[in-house]
Structure formats: structure tokens, C-alpha cells
Fold:
Amino acid sequence: MIDNIRLLLQIITVDFFIAFGLYTILYLLISIFIKSPKLSKIDEEVVHFISSAGVVYFLVWIIGLCIFYVESNLEEQISMTNRMFGKYWVGFWLQPILWFVVTQLLRLKKVSKNIFFRVIFSFILIISIERFVIIVISFHGDYLPSFWTMYNDLDIYPSNYLLALLMKIIFFLLCVGIYYLVKNQIIIFTKTKIEN
Structure:
């Protein structure tokens, strides 16, 4: 059960939050050149989707905490309680609450239409606090530049990386499209139920 919850949280953070950040950057670049009501409508649905994904993420994270606590032995429960409410409690709570708050602030039209907030929020969703710490530490003086290589054994070239980012955005937009269709079907169903 815990593994399923971790997988769901990873899907939301990697496939939705990061993809939303990438989409936002792409959308802002495209919206400079193309002024279209259809593009604005797509962006509104994307914002609704990511706000809903933020709620789902936070609920699943809280449920996962409760399940992990209940299924753990006494030693793990004490350790978890110390992490949650101990000396470094901020590190435990900050990232999930930050993602939840950012996604819910996007519900406000003034925030979602503001370019500055969108760029800041996209970077917050792309680069988590953990990733930020890893990036800062990797530039520390202990790492010698002579060991840095552009390409390694994984054959990750810029063209492959750009293609992977594009595929992530396309998958994200596909999920938004499915969300839009399901939401509209629910609205139509409830209207017909009320009329009958």
C-alpha cells in the first residue's frame, strides 16, 4: 500500500508538477507571438487541472503519512514523530505544503494570469527543495571540474533531452484533455439529473 502511495506521489510530482512548470515556460513563450482565445482556454484548463492535482497530492501525502504511521513498529513511529515535530520539522513539512499552496494560489485569476508569478511558481514546481540543495551542493568546491563531463554512459544528448521534455509536456496536455472531457461529462450528467 505504501509503495502504491509513493508511486502516485511520484507520478503527480514528476509527470504533473514538473510538466506544468515546463508547459508554463513554453506557454509564456508561445503567448508572446500568438494571441488566441483557444490558447487562453487551454491554459485555464491546465491551471484547473494542476490545482486539482495539488489537492490530490496533499490528500494522498496525508493519507500516506497516516498509513505509514499505523503500519510501522514502535521504533519507526517514534522516529517519524521526531522528524515531523522535532528540531528539523520545517524540512519535513515545507515541500508538500509549498506545493499545495502554490497550486492553490493558481486558482486566483490575478495570480494565474500574472507572468511573474507563473514563472516563479513554475520554477518552484520544477525544482523541489531537495533538488535545489543537490544542485547547490554539486557546485561546492569538493567537486573538481576535471571530472565533469557533458555526456556520460547513458547517452543523454541535448536532442534526446529536448525530445523527452517535449514528450513530458505532450503527456501532460493529454492528461489535461482527459480531465477536461471527464469534467464536462460530469457537468452534463448532473444537469440532466437535475432537469429530470
Notes: The first helix runs from residue 2 to 33.
